[in-house]
Design a protein that fits this description.
about 325 residues; alpha/beta; Rossmann fold; 13 strands; elongated
């Protein structure tokens, strides 16, 4: 009797968003936070359907950060390595050459997660930047991330258990607005006024006097001086991934309008603070983890009651 034919292979290729995907690098393309959606949705789908992930091209060739003089150039060169079992190198080129004309695009939406297709190259695209379907796989995603990162881990790294508070201030390519209320209206890629962060730093220092507050930002310019004058400390390791992992280790995180800080909260699953909007963004943490939404014009933000933030108090 003839042997039963082997199951058809299922291959998954994360689309990290670029005008030209050269397979080994991208021309332009998403930053880290946005790229992680497609990559980790691809990882989870491969886990669910028994597929293999083709290592994506993390390096991104872009001129915007250079022209703006951003502190982070967002090239991601040599930042990651293939995870054990991922298809890479010559085998990656061969798999993409064989499957490119038979590729199927798997679009991830907040309300839908289509299955992978056997005998096809499944190109996974997450354009909605949704965590839908990822929360049950948080530990898998954490382990995967630690398994691909080349850059140094923060000292004494943990997930959401560090005895410090992180504040993410995204400037760079985000636009400043004259009317802060447009941020509350949901306009994306906008800078949150430094005054909003400053008012929160004051409240956090009063509420948790023994916890250091670290500022993580793509700028080290004078814009951050009002926060440093309040006793916060600037933390810049020189690596976007090391900084992200340090943010994910904080016990409380103040987020920006960036998916970068949302991934830090997803990974750390710690209490977090965000600008209040007319329509709130999808929460990155579990339903049981406290989230605080603070109006853009709040002068004296009211923080959680002490008992609401389990495991985090004012003692060092």
């Amino acid at each position: 009797m003839a042997e039963k034919a082997a199951a058809s292979p299922v291959t998954v290729y994360p689309d990290l968003g670029s005008k030209f995907d050269l397979w080994f690098a991208r021309l332009s393309g998403h930053g880290l936070g946005n790229s992680f959606y497609s990559y980790f949705h691809a990882v989870v789908l491969a886990e669910q359907f028994g597929g293999r992930v083709i290592a994506p091209p993390w390096p991104s060739i872009k001129v915007g950060p250079l022209l703006r003089g951003d502190n982070s150039k967002r090239f991601y060169w040599r930042m990651f390595r293939p995870f054990p079992g991922e298809i890479y190198g010559f085998q990656k080129s061969l798999s993409l050459l064989k499957g490119w004309l038979k590729r199927t695009y798997i679009f991830i939406e907040p309300s839908s997660r289509p299955p992978l297709v056997a005998e096809r190259l499944n190109v996974v695209c997450s354009r909605a930047f949704t965590f839908n379907g990822l929360h049950p796989y948080r530990n898998l995603i954490r382990n995967r991330l630690l398994g691909i990162v080349n850059d140094p881990l923060p000292e004494n790294h943990s997930w959401g258990k560090g005895k410090y508070i992180a504040v993410h201030v995204r400037l760079g390519d985000f636009a400043a607005v004259t009317d802060p209320l447009v941020i509350s209206g949901g306009k994306s890629n906008t800078r949150i006024p430094i005054s909003w962060y400053a008012n929160l730093v004051k409240s956090l220092r009063s509420h948790y006097p023994n916890r250091p507050i670290y500022i993580f930002s793509d700028s080290n310019g004078p814009e951050l001086q009002p926060l440093l004058a309040l006793g916060a400390q600037l933390s810049q390791s020189g690596s976007d991934m090391t900084d992200l992992l340090a943010m994910a280790g904080a016990s409380i995180l103040v987020g920006s309008n960036s998916t970068y800080s949302r991934w830090a909260v997803f990974l750390g699953n710690m209490p977090s603070i965000w600008v209040q909007k007319q329509v709130e963004d999808e929460r990155p943490s579990d339903q049981r983890t406290p989230i605080l939404y603070v109006p853009i014009d709040a002068l004296e933000p009211i923080l959680w009651a002490q008992e609401e933030v389990s495991g985090f108090d004012s003692t060092p």
